[in-house]
Structures are given as C-alpha cells and as structure tokens.
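hiii so um. not sure if this is the right channel but i have a protein structure encoded as tokens and i wanna go backwards to a sequence. like what aa goes where. can anyone help
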C-alpha cells in the first residue's frame, strides 16, 4: 500500500489510507507519535532520512502526505518528500510562511471578506514589515478581479466560501483571468470552509491550497494547526525551505491528532452538509429571521457557481435576525445545544456574533462595507441529531 498507488482511489477511501503505510518496525496501522527531536546517525551525514525534528518528522510527514493526496496534488514522493503537503503550528503560521515567499513590496490581490486573522496579518503586520501592497476586492464578481490584477501581481489570495458572509468566488474564472494578466502569480485558496471533500481548488487551476486544520480537517475542536498543499515542484521546494527556516512546522502530537481526525472527514462532512442544508431551509422560512446566506440555497447570489465547483455546501450558515444587537444577544444567550464560541468545523455545533467576537479586529467601516452588521449571526452546524438542533434554534428564536 504505497502512497503512489492510492491516487485513483475515491476520497472516502483516501481519508483513511492516503500516504499511510503500516509502521515498518512493528506493523502499527496508525503512525506512532514520533517525539524524538533528533535521530542517531551511523556516520556523519549517514542516516535514515531523518536528522532533526523541525526539518523531518515521520508523524508530520504522514499527515502532510495525506492532505496532499486529498487535495489532489500532482506531486509524488519522488518529486517531493511529502507530495507537496506542509503542516504548520497553526493556520496563521501556514499563511505567514507562504507570505514569506514573496519579495518586499509585492502586489497581492485578496478577497475583501476574509478570516479576521488573515486580514489583520495583511493589513497590520505585512503591510508594514514587508511593505506588501494588498488590493482587497470582492472576488465573487469576476469583473472586480480583472480590474484589480496587474502584470506584476505576485499572489492572488482567495477565500471561498468566505468568513462570515459566505461569498462564493469562481475559482476557474479567477485562474483563467490571472494566467492571462500575470502568468507568474501564485494562486492560493483558503479552503478551510469547504474542506477537500466539498471543493478542491487545484482542480480549478490553482497552485496552492491552505487550510486551518483546526477546523474541519481535525474536526474535534482539540488541536490548532494549518496545512498548505501545492502541486508545483518549485513552490514545494521553497515552502520546505521556508517551513524549516522559519520553524513554523507542526508538532508530532498535533500531527497525530489531526491525522486521527481526518479519518472521519468524509462521514463528518456528509452530515455537516446534510444538516446545514436542512437548517438553512428551516431558518429561511422562519418569521424572526430576516435573511439566510448558505451556498446551497437557491437564494444565494452565486448558487450556480457553488453548484458547479462544490460537491457539498458545508456546515456554515450566516443569518441576519430581525431587530438589532439586543435581539441577537437574547437569541445567542438562549441556545442550549449550540455553544456560544468562536471557531468552527468541529463535531459540536457552535454559534457566534462576528461583529463582537471573531471579526472585532476588522475596522468598523470595513465591517459595515462588508455587511457584517449587529444582526449577523454565524452558525457552525455540528453532527448532532439535526432534529435536536432545529428544536434548539426554534426555542431560542421564540
Ligand atoms: C481559523 C481560520 C484561519 C486561521 O487558522 P488558525 O488555525 O486559527 O491559525 C484561517 N482561515 C480561515 C478561513 C479560518 O477559519
């Protein structure tokens, strides 16, 4: 069972086996947690391919090969040791490492509605330290992307669906526009909200995929991490160098936890997709709800694009309640099964208020422009019994 042979397998099989082989010394079916920081050498420079754990770690490598296979990287182990997969201490560490590939003052085109921490990194750190020139635009409209691209654009950063307004960007259209205007630009999609079960950006012509594995990949709200996958050998080589140089690589324990979580990714995503679809429909019909945003609803402005590029619509729902901050607060205090907490993508259902919680760091005028109002509430639908979840929302809305 080599990593190369499992490429043609379907994704529900890959989440169990991709990039994994029983441990050669014991036959253990799960890669052991390799905690050693250093590895003995027979003679100076003669070793089994492992020198120092920041650089080489078998548990981390197993996770990296797995996610590379799930995202469909074209690289095999002969071209890159982990087939183009790289795991980091957090989603933010993965983005920081990727951004370090860019030259000073590079031009970046970015989605305007972004994970709060990514926007903060671009605006408040890299705009200063790296003099990065970031143009934010609403990429759900391809015309905006074309207007913003420049011949010297170095990176295109897309999130789709976005956080928290669930905008959908057409990955294929963006890739075609970028290849025409700036063929050297790197195209990266933050695929955290969709997971590779629902959407695989490399298939749409992207060079890189990023995940906060804290969310759906690990799925159990007990481990922070990030993963990047590329299918370009030159980019893989540079990422490996930067991951090791910056020291942002994921710990073996976290790699073990995340790999364990991924084994159920397919079954979990099926339930997230199904329950969120039912709940979005329930909320759309509810008198106390002003508007529901969910890519799977026909009312979503880019439902057609979502249907084309996604095989499921995920567990994230955004709603606008009737009333203002007081009504939202009362609703959020009354839910019982949904936990009032930041983060998303775990087995348990969470609910939150972006304007006060996750997106408090977004400047108020930007929040207003993006439509992150005081009546906006974000739900991360877990895998509990969906009837219980609907009853919980019903009693809280009442
Ligand atoms: C959580 C998240 C991140 C950041 O990841 P961490 O693991 O929290 O560092 C980036 N992008 C999206 C879409 C996220 O949801």
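sure thing!! here u go:
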């Amino acid at each position: 069972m080599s990593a190369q042979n499992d490429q043609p397998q379907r994704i529900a099989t890959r989440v169990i086996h991709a990039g994994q082989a029983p441990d050669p010394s014991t036959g253990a079916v799960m890669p052991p947690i390799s905690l050693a920081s250093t590895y003995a050498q027979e003679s100076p420079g003669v070793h089994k391919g492992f020198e120092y754990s920041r650089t080489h770690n078998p548990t981390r490598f197993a996770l990296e090969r797995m996610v590379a296979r799930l995202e469909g990287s074209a690289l095999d182990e002969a071209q890159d040791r982990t087939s183009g997969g790289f795991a980091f201490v957090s989603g933010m560490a993965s983005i920081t490492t990727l951004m370090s590939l860019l030259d000073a003052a590079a031009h970046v085109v970015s989605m305007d509605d972004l994970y709060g921490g990514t926007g903060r990194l671009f605006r408040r750190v890299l705009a200063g330290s790296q003099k990065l020139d970031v143009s934010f635009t609403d990429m759900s409209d391809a015309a905006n992307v074309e207007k913003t691209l420049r011949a010297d654009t170095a990176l295109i950063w897309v999130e789709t669906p976005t956080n928290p307004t669930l905008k959908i960007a057409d990955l294929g259209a963006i890739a075609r526009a970028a290849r025409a205007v700036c063929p050297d630009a790197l195209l990266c999609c933050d695929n955290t909200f969709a997971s590779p079960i629902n959407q695989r950006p490399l298939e749409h012509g992207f060079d890189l995929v990023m995940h906060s594995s804290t969310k759906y990949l690990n799925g159990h709200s007990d481990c922070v991490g990030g993963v990047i996958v590329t299918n370009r050998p030159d980019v893989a080589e540079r990422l490996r160098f930067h991951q090791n140089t910056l020291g942002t690589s994921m710990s073996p324990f976290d790699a073990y936890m995340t790999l364990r979580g991924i084994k159920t990714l397919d079954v979990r995503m099926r339930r997230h997709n199904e329950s969120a679809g039912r709940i979005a429909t329930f909320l759309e019909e509810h008198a106390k709800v002003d508007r529901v945003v969910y890519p799977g609803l026909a009312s979503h402005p880019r439902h057609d694009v979502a249907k084309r590029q996604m095989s499921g619509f995920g567990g994230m729902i955004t709603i606008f309640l009737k009333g203002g901050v007081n009504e939202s607060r009362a609703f959020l205090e009354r839910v019982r099964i949904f936990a009032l907490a930041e983060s998303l993508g775990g087995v348990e259902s969470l609910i939150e208020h972006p304007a006060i919680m996750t997106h408090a760091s977004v400047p108020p005028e930007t929040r207003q422009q993006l439509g992150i109002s005081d009546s906006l509430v974000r739900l991360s639908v877990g895998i509990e019994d969906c009837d219980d979840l609907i009853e919980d929302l019903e009693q809280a809305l009442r």
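oh and Residues 75 and 398 are 53 Å apart (CA to CA).
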